[in-house]
Amino acid sequence: MTLPSLGLYGLGTMGSALALNILDNGYGLHVANRTTSRVPEFVGEAGALAENLTGHESLVAMARAMPAPRAIILMVPAGGAVDSGIAELLEVLGDGDVIIDAGNADFNDTRRRTDEVESSGVAFLGMGVSGGEEGARHGPSIMAGGTESVWAGLREVIEAISAKFEGAPCADRFGPDGAGHFVKTVHNGIEYADMELIAEVYGLMRYGLGKAPAEIGKVFGAWNDGPLKSYLVEISAEVLGAVDRISGGPAVDAIVDRAGQKGTGRWTVIEALRMGQSASAIEAAVAARSWSAEKEVREAGAEILGFGREPLELDAADLEAALLAGRIVAYAQGFRILDAASDEFGWSLDFARIAEVWRAGCIIRSALLDGIAGAFRGDLPMGQLIFAPAFAGMLREAVPAMRRVVAASVAAGHPVPALAAALAFLESMALARGTTDLIQGQRDFFGRHGFDRVDGGAGRHGPWWD
Ligand SMILES: NC(=O)c1ccc[n+]([C@@H]2O[C@H](COP(=O)([O-])OP(=O)(O)OC[C@H]3O[C@@H](n4cnc5c(N)ncnc54)[C@H](OP(=O)(O)O)[C@@H]3O)[C@@H](O)[C@H]2O)c1
User: Fold this and answer.
1) What is the chain's alpha carbon radius of gyration, rounded to the nearest angstrom?
2) Domain check: are 123 and 206 in the same one?
3) What is the mean pLDDT of the chain?
4) Does the chain have fewer CB atoms within 10 Å around its N or its C terminus?
5) d(CA 233, CA 256)
6) Residues 75 and 49: beta-carbon distance below 8 Å
7) Among candidates 414, 380, 386, 376, which has minimal Cα distance to 328?
8) DSSP-derived secondary structure letter, 4
């Protein structure tokens, strides 16, 4: 199959790194950027790789200059910038050309754009890219959505630039239109949960056990040799061990504890709830970021409410087990959302392949993912990752420790929203009879909604209506 000529628009953090990656793999590349002065600057940065690089004045000038068939990657912020780029490109491109949106698009937009772009004869690929700048430069994890034919035409290049796990490319097409961006969105939702769980455990060690950041960094470093081995635990160890250049104290102490939650984490929760799912660990992580953003309110709260935090006595082994159980829940809830979306949109997502594509290059890569891929290839009771024999075994072992951690934290006034949410999910899914009998009774009482009887029969009413 003839490879199209390749173009990339948007030489920001991700676009520049991805462009160098493409060049490094021996492909020629055309580039353009909104702020034109960035183009010669980037050509300079490319050094010897610039031999195969052609810079252009604008997106349209680039598209016009590229030999057909053309594949143009947009690496710009999600939203209006993508729509404007597409509108400009549709003036120039034609049959056989492809527009690739490699930003963090809302998959609903990708579905709409696929229809709009493909109705004009140009193909569209929605491509989620994970791994930050380092991943984009040396091999990201890539989650694509589009037709099989557009994937077939680009597969060679995309696999070449992707991360490799034991030689296998961490890139695949997961379905049509928005499937790739949806998988990337859920990836980011899991990332939110995992980061929050790690931060909560850091908080317990710091403010409950009184450990210094560098000491906690060493604990994370040691955990990174065990079942918690992962990119996020590894970089947490590095961040906690780092020293601030200005104060000479721990680098984390120079950072304001405030984070936003504008995009993919929130979309994961919105989509989960819309599909009748709950991803409680991810929701908790999004909530924790929202509360963190209210820095001034929290400062007032410390004065006005001032509940205070008590010291903790907790084993490092319990904390490690609690974090492991929380991480399993984050993945499990992510896959439950993917399952619901696969049904709703008819995507037939291959969960084992998704886990495999996440094994290297991406932010949520961890030692668990190979086992997760294996679990989805094996006999998974009721399709639930937490019931896979290997994971059920880990959870049976970890949950008593997780209970001790959550109970001690709550009793001593340390907020652990994601750990508590993950534990509540596990406890709820391990109870054959919960407490929703009363909710159904209440609903029937005030609204004559009816309920199912344990001895058979639907839509029955309680004695309060006799
Ligand atoms: N950073 C990450 O770790 C990461 C990871 C995965 C995915 N992503 C996604 O990748 C995309 C790019 O992110 P980034 O981190 O590379 O962003 P960035 O460093 O801020 O760069 C943004 C690029 O988009 C261009 N741009 C901004 N607004 C534009 C507009 N209205 N029209 C045309 N071009 C515009 C900028 O051009 P100027 O030079 O003219 O400003 C710049 O080239 C986003 O969708 C992001 O969510 C980022």
Assistant:
1) 25
2) no
3) 97
4) C
5) 21
6) no
7) 386
8) P
**pLDDT on residue 263:** 86
Q: What is the DSSP string of 201-250?
A: HHHIIIIIS---HHHHHHHHHHHTTTTT-BHHHHHHHHHHH-B-TTTSSB
230 vs 195: CA distance, rounded Å: 11
229 among known catalytic residues: no
DSSP 433: S
| CATH number, domain with residue 259 | 1.10.1040.10
Q: Up-side HSE of residue 205: CA atoms within 13 Å toward CB? A: 25
Q: Which helix (H) or strand (E) holds 304?
A: helix 295-304
Question: How far apart (Å, rounded) are the C-alpha atoms in residues 181 and 74?
Answer: 14
If asked whether residues 268 and 131 sit together in one domain, one would say no
107 and 136 belong to one structural domain = yes
Q: Is the pLDDT of residue 261 over 80?
A: no
Residue 237 structure tokens: 């160890």
The boundaries of the domain holding residue 135 are: 5-177
Q: How many domains does the chain have?
A: 3
H-type alpha helices, 247-279: 264-274
Instruction: Check pLDDT > 80 for residue 1.
Output: no
Residues 276 and 217 in one domain: yes
Q: Tens digits of per-residue pLDDT, 327-383?
A: 999 999 999 999 999 999 999 999 999 999 999 999 999 999 999 999 999 989 999
Specify whether 82 is located in the same domain as 30: yes
Residues 211 and 306 in one domain: yes
What pLDDT does 262 receive?
75
Binding residues for substrate: 104, 130-132, 187-188, 192, 262, 289, 443, 449
Q: Whose CA is nearest to atom 3 of ligand 1?
A: 132
Give the CATH number for residue 99.
3.40.50.720
What's the CATH number where 444 sits?
A: 1.20.5
Whether 82 and 105 have beta carbons less than 8 Å apart is answered as: yes
pLDDT digits (tens, 9 = 90+) for 430-466: 999 999 999 999 999 999 999 999 999 999 999 999 9
- Cis check for the bond before 69: say yes or no (omega within 30 of 0): yes
Looking at the structure, tell me whether residues 121 and 172 fall in a common domain. yes
Please say if the pLDDT value at position 260 is more than 90. no
**Boundary-marking domain end, from 139, 156, 177:** 177
| Catalytic residue, candidates 91, 134, 191, 229 | 191
Q: Which residues are annotated as a binding site for NADP(+)?
A: 10-15, 33-35, 76-78, 104
* % of the chain with per-residue pLDDT over 70: 100
